[in-house]
Structure formats: C-alpha cells, structure tokens
C-alpha cells in the first residue's frame, strides 16, 4: 500500500489519498489472514460475499426500516448472500477438519476446540464466529486508522512528536518489532485520544439479569440498556473543559487516570463481554501508523469536509482525502510551533 502511494507521487513529491478506502482494504486483508491463514484465498472469497451482504444491510439501514423477514428485493438478495456465505464456510471448515494441518489461525484454533469439546463448539458456532470476526474486525479498525490519520493531519505537532519517538525507539528498523510497539507511548496516547473523540462503535447494549437500582432508577430484570459510548466520551463533567479538543496528553498517566472516572473511556466496551479483538486492533493500528508516519509527512486535502456521521459505525461522511509527502529515510524534523496547515500544489491522486 505504502509503495503504491510512493509510486503515484507527482514531481512535487506529493500524492492525495482517500485513506478510508485504502484502510478498509488493509484491515480486510489482515482479518482474512488472521482468521483463515493458510486458507487465505478461500477465506477472501467468502468475506467478499459477506461484504456484499453488509452493503445491502447498510443500504436498508439508511432507508426506511423494513424488518429483515419481509421478502423485499433487498432482503431476498441478502438471504441469498447469507446462504452462500454459510455454504462456503461449512465447506472450508470440513476441508480443514479432514486435513492434518495444525495451523494456528483462528479457524484452526476453533476447529481444535471443537474436536476436544464438540458439545461446546459446534460447526454452526464456528460459522457464526467467522462471520462475526469479519463484521467486527474490518470496519472498526479501518475507522480507527482513518480518524487517527485525519487527526494527525490536523495536528502536525503531534504527528512530529509521534515520528520523533518512533525514530528514537526503532532506529533503522523500518517495521517496529513487538518490543518496539510497547514503547511507542506517544502513538498509544494519540490512538486513545482518537478512540475517545471518534469511537468507531458509538454504543453497546446490556440486558439486566435481575432487578437493579442504577443511578437512583429502579430497572426491572430483562430491560435492555443502551450504553452511549460516544456521549460518555464527550461528557464535560467527566473529561473537563477541553472535552472537545484533541489532547492526547490527557492519557499520559494511563487510561484510568485520563478522566474523573476510571471507566469513562470504553471504546472496546467493558467487562466479560468486552471486545475480544482489542489487542489485535491496537497492534494493527499501531503498526500501520508507525509505518505511515515513518515514510510520510501528511496534511488534510483542501477538499476534506469534517462531517462525522453514523452509519452503524462512526464514519467521515465525505471521506478522508489526505495529502502525503515522502520523507527522507530516518529523517527527524524540528517540531512545528503551530498547527497551521502547509499549502501545496501540483499533486497526483491515487485510487485503488
Ligand atoms: C478499533 C477497533 C474495534 C473497536 C472500536 C471495537 C469495539 C467493540 C465494542 C464496543 C464491542 C462491544 C463490547 C461490550 O459490549 O462490552 C465489541 C465486541 C466485539 N468485538 Fe470489537 N472492536 C474493534 C475491533 C475488533 C476486531 C479486530 C475483532 C475481531 C478480530 C473484534 C471482535 C469483536 C467481537 C467478536 C465482539 C463480541 C464480544 C462478545 O460479545 O463477547 N473487534 N467490539
């Protein structure tokens, strides 16, 4: 991806990239490799079918809501895709079960678990898990990458701080090692602040298992409660007067001390049912951003319009066009004193 951006650069050494599209491609690739590993090609085809089904779901989400059980043309198409996805996944699982492979991708691990505990992990569970991983793993992580790139483009000072730290920690290594990643504290703070301001998942749900009293309200058993992650992350009473500002420094002493309440920051939910993909998502985002920051300096394209919008997840409504400029290898830079934008001309754009 980064090589393609570099190749597409104009003589002025710049290229304009619609980052949200590229990051979606990247995260789809990563989740396909993580889930299916050695069966990557088959897995990719299945996930592409599921992607088409999700597009239909997103379309109906935007229009008047018609329940999924009515045989509208869109629903019939969606059932067709679902049947196809299910059939292909079942076949893939059977092939792996029969093979002697001991691959440690997610599919391999689930098949192993189903062999030792057949009553706990059924073939149908494996199909459903694979479907969830794709849905839960692709768009969330690409949104995180997109918003963080936009924020770093808006705030060149934080971009330069993250780059300086990266060069200090990694030295001549182009790709950070596992140990390097842990030491990239500035990048972690930037990612947390991005997850606070623009949490890809804006809410989650809990159902009460018993009658409870919550904040002075009596809530009967079986009530569904919506936990508004986005609203909680923007609550001035908890985060202070600069709640709407981009200030990664608030995470300098760790997540629990960033706000007045230790559980005010919940981009991955909370408790036993919190996000199982959290570590994968953070590692992927850190690795990607580290590689981007090392190669390029970047700023928002003049056509960028800031319009966060909810379409199941929190998206930039008009996309995220960003201008990248190639940096000399291992080039550190003096930190800009202001966050003003650089002006440029004569650039190319690159599409996938
Ligand atoms: C930035 C990226 C991500 C964000 C913001 C995110 C956010 C969330 C949130 C808010 C929940 C609900 C948690 C709760 O109710 O307490 C969740 C659940 C879940 N996520 Fe993620 N997620 C991300 C990436 C991923 C990835 C990469 C995967 C898969 C590899 C994944 C798989 C799941 C699954 C399977 C659940 C359901 C867990 C359960 O019900 O026990 N997520 N995620």
TrEMBL record:
Signal peptide, first to last residue: none
Native source organism of the sequence: Linum tenue
Protein name per its UniProtKB record: Cytochrome P450
GO BP, sorted A to Z: brassinosteroid homeostasis; brassinosteroid metabolic process
InterPro entries: Cyt_P450 (IPR001128), Cyt_P450_CS (IPR017972), Cyt_P450_E_grp-I (IPR002401), Cyt_P450_sf (IPR036396), Cytochrome_P450_Monooxygen (IPR050665)
Subcellular localization(s) per the UniProt record: Membrane
Residues at which heme binds: 275
Residue ranges, compositional bias (Low complexity): 331-345
PROSITE patterns from the UniProt entry: CYTOCHROME_P450
Cofactors, names only: heme
Record keywords: Heme, Iron, Membrane, Metal-binding, Monooxygenase, Oxidoreductase, Transmembrane, Transmembrane helix
Region entry Disordered, spans: 331-352
Superkingdom of this protein's organism: Eukaryota
Entry membrane topology: Single-pass membrane protein
Family from the record: Belongs to the cytochrome P450 family.
Any GO CC annotation of this UniProt entry: membrane
GO molecular-function term, one example from the UniProt record: monooxygenase activity
């Amino acid at each position: 991806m980064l090589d393609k951006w570099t190749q597409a650069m104009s003589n002025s050494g710049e290229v304009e990239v619609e980052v949200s599209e590229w990051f979606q491609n990247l995260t789809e690739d990563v989740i396909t490799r993580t889930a299916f590993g050695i069966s990557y090609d088959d897995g990719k085809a299945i996930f592409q079918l599921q992607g088409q089904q999700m597009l239909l779901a997103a379309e109906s989400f935007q229009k008047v809501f018609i329940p999924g059980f009515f045989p509208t043309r869109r629903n019939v198409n969606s059932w067709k895709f679902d049947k196809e996805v299910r059939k292909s996944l079942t076949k893939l699982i059977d092939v792996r079960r029969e093979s002697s492979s001991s691959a440690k991708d997610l599919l391999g691990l689930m098949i192993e678990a189903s062999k030792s505990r057949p009553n706990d992990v059924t073939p149908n569970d494996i199909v459903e898990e694979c479907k969830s991983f794709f849905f839960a793993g692709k768009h969330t992580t690409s949104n995180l990458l997109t918003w963080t790139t936009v924020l770093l483009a808006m705030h060149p000072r934080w971009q330069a701080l993250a780059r300086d730290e990266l060069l200090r920690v990694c030295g001549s290594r182009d790709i950070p090692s596992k140990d390097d990643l842990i030491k990239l504290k500035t990048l972690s703070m930037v990612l947390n602040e991005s997850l606070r301001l623009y949490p890809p998942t804006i809410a989650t749900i809990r159902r009460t298992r018993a009658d409870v009293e919550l904040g002075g309200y009596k809530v009967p058993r079986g009530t569904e409660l919506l936990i508004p992650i986005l609203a909680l992350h923007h609550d001035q009473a908890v985060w202070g007067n600069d709640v709407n500002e981009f200030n990664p420094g608030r995470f300098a002493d760790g997540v629990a001390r960033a706000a007045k309440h230790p559980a005010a920051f919940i981009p991955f939910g909370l408790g036993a049912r919190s996000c199982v993909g959290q570590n994968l998502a953070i590692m992927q985002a850190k690795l990607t951003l580290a590689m981007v920051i090392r190669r390029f300096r970047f700023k928002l394209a003049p056509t960028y319009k800031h319009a966060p919008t909810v379409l199941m997840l929190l998206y930039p409504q008009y996309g995220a066009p960003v201008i990248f400029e190639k940096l000399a290898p291992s080039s550190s830079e003096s930190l800009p004193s202001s966050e003003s934008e650089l002006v440029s001309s004569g650039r190319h754009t690159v599409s996938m």
